[in-house]
Amino acid sequence: MELPPAVELMVALSSHIAKKQKNNSSSLVRLNMPPGPSYDMAFDLARDPLLCLQNLKDQYGSTVSFTLASQPIVLVTSP
Fold first, then answer.
1. Tens digits of per-residue pLDDT, 27-37?
2. Torsion of Cα atoms, 74 then 76 then 77 then 79, to 10°
């Protein structure tokens, strides 16, 4: 099954970030990442995912970065 180009890009980026994180395991690499909260969003997303994502968009704009289970995530809410 062929993945859409956007998904392939996200997989490639997450793989690249994971390799960087493995090489620098002492701290989360957030270089050139969009603004976002500095804490792990796992519990907030578990409570009410849609409200949490809407609040992130309202507070930080259409491109937000955050961590989820210690993994960096970039959320793009508009094309």
1. 445 568 899 99
2. -170
Q: What is the mean pLDDT of residues 8-30?
A: 59
Report which residue type is found at 3.
L
| Mean pLDDT calculated for residue range 69-74 | 89
Name the strand (E) or helix (H) holding 50. Answer: helix 49-60
Helices (H) and strands (E) in the chain, counts: 3, 2
Please answer whether residues 65 and 35 qualify as being in contact, where contact means their C-beta atoms are separated by less than 8 angstroms. yes
Give, in order, the Cα–Cα distances in Å from 42 to each of 1, 8, 24, 30, 32. 30, 24, 22, 18, 22
- Residue 4: both structure tokens together: 């859409």
